[in-house]
């Protein structure tokens, strides 16, 4: 079995974790575990949803794949030297993973742990400057791969689904990835075309920033 570990922390973004989970857990040869600094419930950034960590970092010391979600909680974590406990865990497990990956501002945690030094990477567009300050080089691409370094980063929130499908292709094969895509009926046909910064008008960007600033 391939073990995928998804670390959780206070104020993570739900879909960053659950999107990849929904893809990866469809494959019979893949197990997914949510890990954290303690076995406890972690609440999302608005506090409306909680997910349980079934294992601690000490319990999962050799995962095959790591998927680090983002969320406003990453800002507090990167203030700690090297990303605190989660950064230490990432540095300890990365040498033996098949892939170490992130979704959205989870890339900030990879960067704080020193795993993105000098590499191009992606994250949510609002965090591009922070990512650069942490030693990576932001690019506005949905998924960025560095396969020799076994690092993959995905942009904001929904892009984690795309990255997870690519992971299935890398871990199993293309047919498995397409089967997972069919099982979750992932066939995006959005009613609007404002899902990337380059496509959003000024009024849309202003409203998005307004909503972000209103979040506690």
TrEMBL record:
It comes from the Bacteria. Residues 4-169 form the DJ-1/PfpI domain. GO terms for biological process: regulation of DNA-templated transcription. Pfam families: DJ-1_PfpI (PF01965). This is DJ-1/PfpI family protein.
């Amino acid at each position: 079995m391939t073990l995928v570990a998804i670390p959780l922390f206070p104020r993570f973004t739900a879909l960053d974790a659950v999107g990849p989970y929904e893809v990866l857990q469809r494959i019979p040869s893949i197990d997914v575990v949510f890990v954290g600094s303690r076995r406890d419930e972690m609440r999302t950034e608005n506090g409306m949803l909680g997910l349980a960590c079934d294992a601690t970092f000490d319990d999962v010391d050799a995962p095959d794949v790591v998927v680090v979600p983002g969320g406003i909680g990453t800002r507090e974590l990167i203030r700690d030297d090297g990303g605190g406990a989660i950064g230490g865990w990432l540095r300890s497990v990365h040498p033996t993973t098949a892939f170490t990956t992130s979704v959205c501002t989870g890339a900030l945690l990879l960067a704080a742990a020193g795993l993105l030094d000098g590499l191009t990477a992606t994250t949510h567009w609002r965090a591009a400057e922070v990512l650069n300050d942490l030693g990576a080089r932001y690019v506005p691409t949905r998924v960025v791969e560095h396969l020799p370094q076994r690092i993959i980063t995905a942009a904001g929130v929904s892009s984690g689904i795309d990255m997870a499908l690519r992971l299935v292709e890398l871990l199993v094969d293309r047919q498995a990835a397409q089967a997972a895509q069919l099982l979750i009926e992932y066939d995006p046909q959005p009613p609007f075309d404002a899902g990337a910064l380059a496509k959003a008008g000024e009024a849309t960007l202003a409203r998005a920033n307004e909503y972000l600033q209103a979040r506690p």
